[in-house]
Specification:
Layout (H helix, E strand, L loop, with lengths): L2 E6 L7 E4 L10 E9 L2 E9 L2 H19 L7 H6 L8 H16 L9 H7 L11 H8 L8 E3 L2 E3 L12 H13 L4 E8 L2 E6 L7 E6 L7 E7 L3 E6 L4 E3 L6 E3 L16 E6 L2 H14 L1 H10 L5 E6 L2 E5 L6 E3 L2 E6 L10
Parallel strand pairs: 1-18, 16-18
Antiparallel strand pairs: 2-9, 3-4, 4-7, 5-6, 7-8, 8-11, 9-10, 10-17, 11-14, 12-13, 14-15, 15-16
């Protein structure tokens, strides 16, 4: 039996599993699953309907197309050419994702910033040559970061020499949104997309029930920390518990998520945060931004953007859950529900 406390609001990037029960096929309908590796992660897509095969074929093509478009290491990709100053033309998809990046950057006071590529390279998270840089090195790279330094004139982009874009914290969310649009063009009843832990659901199961999505336990004590029932939504988690390294000299642990304000890996008061939203692109970017912001600022941000997303923040043995999804979340964690009030009230737990 789960324990529930009430958390009253002061007004002011893991793995996610899918708990999907297989169903029997109906006449002319079939369930198909596609597994592939792209965007440096394992992906799985399950699709049910009369045109499941056709939908998955186009879905695979779209994943590979976007992977090639935004690869930071492929010399033929659009992002590689932009980062290296050999081209400044933007495709339609890049314009769209940059506009969403601009929105998240602006509303979170820069907690999510796709221009931190110089810092990602400095720390060696992409190359695997992990390295703890000095303060001066970080300061130099920070000077090359900041979305506000980008100049966009619709189809073109201008950046300072040495700056670089990296969509690693939002590309999978955009991709899952694109797959939802594809499924809408076919005779598909439901689909579940898992892109390296980014989960997004299309439609409902034939029995009318929601999908049950499992959220990994960042403490590693259990297979998962809880589950959330959703339909037509994305469930995306970020945390520092999967990708990190430990400095051999100091023994200090550094996660792969970099704080754009400091240039150092985040030291969050949350073990993980899961964003639930109908907008997969937004959910992907916000999962990183909220992890950077920490619990209190995330709660305040949700208060001002409650129509856009809900969240589940895990910290220690406590799960902080927004009221919009509280009834759909189940866990053995000590659950504290975030509520909304129209006037200042003390926080009570």
């Amino acid at each position: 039996m789960k324990k529930i406390n009430r958390l009253i609001l002061l007004f002011t990037t893991m793995a996610v599993g899918i708990l999907l029960t297989a169903c029997g096929g109906y006449k002319g309908k079939k369930e198909r699953t596609l597994n592939l590796t792209a965007m440096d992660t394992y992906m799985s897509i399950t699709c049910y309907g009369r045109e499941a095969d056709e939908a998955l074929e186009l879905a695979e093509y779209e994943i590979k197309r976007l992977d090639e478009l935004w690869s930071v290491s492929n010399k033929d990709s659009e992002i590689y050419r932009i980062n290296n100053g050999t081209d400044n033309l933007l495709s339609e998809d890049t314009i769209k994702i940059l506009e969403k990046c601009r929105y998240i950057y602006g509303t979170t006071d820069g907690a999510f910033d796709v221009t931190i590529r110089p810092l990602v390279e400095l720390w060696g998270f992409e190359s695997g040559r992990l390295y703890v840089p000095g303060d001066d090195e970080i300061k130099d790279k920070l000077a090359l970061c900041g979305f506000d330094k980008i100049k966009m004139d619709y189809e073109t982009i201008t950046m300072e020499s040495g700056m670089g874009l990296d969509f690693g914290g939002i590309a999978k969310g955009y991709t899952s949104d694109r797959l939802m649009a594809i499924f809408n063009e076919f005779d598909i009843e439901y689909a579940v997309v898992s892109l390296g832990g980014n989960v997004q659901c299309y439609g409902r199961k034939p029995d009318g029930n929601d999908f049950k999505i499992a959220i990994a336990d960042p403490n590693g004590k259990k297979d998962y920390a809880g589950s959330i029932n959703v339909s037509e939504k994305a469930v995306i988690t970020s945390g520092g518990y999967e990708r990190y390294f430990v400095d051999d000299v100091t023994g200090k642990k550094y996660c792969h998520i970099i704080d754009p304000h400091t240039g150092y890996p985040v030291e969050s008061d949350m073990d993980s945060i899961t964003i639930v939203s109908v907008d997969g692109t937004l959910a992907d970017g916000l999962s990183t931004a909220c992890y950077v912001m920490g619990l209190d600022k995330t709660i305040e941000y949700w208060h001002n953007h409650k129509s856009e997303f809900d969240f589940i923040a895990l910290s220690g043995n406590t799960a902080y859950v927004t009221s919009g999804i509280a009834e759909d979340f189940a866990s053995d964690y000590d659950i504290r529900i975030c509520l909304l009030y129209t006037s200042p009230s003390p926080r009570d737990s």
